[in-house]
Amino acid sequence: MSAVADIQECRDFLAANPQVRFVEVFFTSMTGVPRGKRLRVHELEAIYAYGRFLPGSILVVDTTGADCEDTGLVWEDGDADRRARPVPGTLTLAPWLGPDVAQVMLSLYELDGTPNDLDPRHVLQRVLDRYAADGLTPVAACELEYYLVDLQRGPRGELLPAKSALTGMAPTGIQVYGLPELEAHAPFLRELWDTADTIGVPLEGAISEFAPGQVELTLMHKPDALRAADDAVLYKRAAKGVALRHGCEATFMAKPWSDRAGNGFHVHLSVNDAAGNNLCASEDLEGSDLLKHAIGGMKALLGEGMAILAPNANSYRRFKANSYAPVAPTWGVNNRTVSLRVPAGPPKTRHVEHRVAGADGNPYLVLAVLLASAHHGITHKIDPGAAVVGDGYAAAAKENIRLPNNWFAAVDLFEQSTVLRDYLGDRFVDMFVSVKRTEQARFFEVVTELDFDWYLRNA
């Protein structure tokens, strides 16, 4: 069972922060969107003592927050309450919301105290329990790419890169790893790092990524994959809030521009034994046998997990050859053209970087699928085959292999996956599929300008 925060944590925090008047409490739904309430501070201690009752239907709302009636958790269930409990260690100030505002993450439980099997945190914990039973501890770190964009759209409704508060100019050109591009947004970055320190998120260095206005900041590796996912959720929330304070918006949308790089969510993974030794470590650049088996499992289940790694219609616009977004189940050493990359580095740091997920993925579910796939590979000693040397895109084209390239095919494959059902739970898989099929129907009901451009006169 997942840990529940102790009431003393609340009392200590309020004693140290008497200025707090409001608290935002939130959990992360299947679609990765934080949802919750803003409360008066006098309500907080009761949440630590008894929890807060929230309607079960919010577990299965779509990306826009609309009910998904086909799940059976709206009318048939009477929209019954579940109990939300605070996540230990997540009660912090929320400085971008003002000096008198705090925040705390929640997890959902049934009324009898059983972890709710549709809460993404508990889905990930279910996978981690399989590792613990084998005396293994996954070590994880998340890298999220995103764009800083102007709050105002262009004359045709298009997105515009955010202008620098220092120069008043918008970025032009790719300028990958450009320092002036980072310096132009120095006030945003300074406040973001300060905020991360305040909320306990181990945020590290920043780079200017492969498009104007695109940045990436890394999160520190942790031998606690659940907390690593918490970090990613807290970081995204903070980045969005701090960006607004600087007159722009942080978007983690997978492909905001058709002609520019997409936003990836790269996950770095290794596995420790009970003594804290890295079982992926090896003088061999390809890593230990355990690492290769983990890669074999992740490679084998990439297609079946794509509905989680690329959860939205827009997600599939990101996967193009020669774009640094992978298009096939491939792996290699020190090679950014493959899906599963073993980075260069000292033998003791050997691990795999999973490069498929988009920044629009739910961090809990992305980690759950990747770790389930890796555990499956370790357990069954799955051979990943030969590592790709050189151009992974060319290798995929030559072998005629690729990942599912549309939303519908991905959801169908996920529904049919016996392995992922075993790790994530039948009920979760069925409910996730139901939510995504509702989203698909709603998305494609909308007639867009592109429909008119292509078909108004040509049909």
From TrEMBL:
Signal peptide: none annotated. Its EC number is 6.3.1.11. Residues 120-459 form the GS catalytic domain. Pfam families: Gln-synt_C. PANTHER family: GAMMA-GLUTAMYLPUTRESCINE SYNTHETASE (PTHR43785), TYPE-1 GLUTAMINE SYNTHETASE 2 (PTHR43785:SF12). SMART domains: Gln-synt_C (SM01230). The keyword Ligase applies. It comes from Caulobacter segnis (strain ATCC 21756 / DSM 7131 / JCM 7823 / NBRC 15250 / LMG 17158 / TK0059). Its cofactor is Mg(2+). Keywords: Ligase. This is Glutamate--putrescine ligase. Belongs to the glutamine synthetase family. The keyword Ligase applies. The lineage of its organism: Bacteria, Pseudomonadati, Pseudomonadota, Alphaproteobacteria, Caulobacterales. One of its GO terms (biological process) is glutamine biosynthetic process. SUPFAM superfamilies: Glutamine synthetase, N-terminal domain, Glutamine synthetase/guanido kinase. GO terms for molecular function: glutamate-putrescine ligase activity; glutamine synthetase activity.
